[in-house]
Design a protein that fits this description.
The chain is of the alpha/beta class and 97 residues long. Helix content is 25%, strand content 20%.
């Protein structure tokens, strides 16, 4: 079974992702970047890049350290023009606008 870890502060977004992915047959864990030290197996990580309670770039680094080698999908419910340069620094190589 594929294990997906979701890091998202917004309750509604997190609940929807968890529901959809669980119904699709994935094993889903969720938390915030402060939970990154938990012993979760991750085949895929989905995280919000806009979490006011956690420093964005540092949050990405913490999560990548906790799940080395796991692909990371960065999502955001915030609509802004452009792409922040700091988001490219922690090994983010592709994005969609």
């Amino acid at each position: 079974m594929t294990h997906i870890v979701i890091y998202e502060e917004d309750d509604l977004t997190r609940a929807l992702l968890q529901e959809w992915l669980s119904e699709a047959g994935f094993c889903v864990h969720w938390g915030t970047p402060s939970d990154a030290n938990r012993d979760w197996t991750a085949d895929l990580v989905i995280m919000s890049v806009y979490m006011p309670k956690h420093a964005g770039t540092q949050g990405v680094r913490d999560i990548q350290t906790a799940h080395p080698g796991a692909p990371l999908i960065a999502i955001s419910g915030q609509f802004r023009s452009g792409f922040p340069p700091e988001a490219r620094q922690p090994r983010v190589s592709e994005y969609n606008r």
